[in-house]
Amino acid sequence: MSHRMKPRRPIWTEVTLIVGRESYGAHLLDVSEGGALLVLQDMNIRPVEGFALLKVGDLPGFPADIRWTLGNRLGIRFRAPLHPSVQAEAAFAKIPQGADTVQGPVSDDHGDQLARFSHSISARCPNQSEARFVYA
Known about the structure:
Elements: E1 9-19, E2 22-31, E3 35-40, E4 50-55, E5 62-70, E6 73-78, H1 84-92, E7 101-104, H2 111-121, E8 132-135
């Protein structure tokens, strides 16, 4: 049984993590009401644990605490719970209106979540029959 209390939503979105006066490019891998998993774009950067601000697209920054780091991955805990509608908006923050291709990693355990994501993203694509998903 997982130690997590809230379900996590798989996402593959470019974000910026602001720690002190430094900004780090990252990809948001998954998000829940309480936190998120990120992978830093620069393998040589190691932000320290502590306060951070997560910027996703044009959304306002989300105050968080870096809880752990492992290589270029890190886990953050939001200082205030993230409403499910905000989680969904974060998932679509970097998908341009009218996009016909979405790229991102997929693992076997995310199959049903991917199906829901595919259904949700089709609303953002004007030619739904032409929407395609490329998995890394």
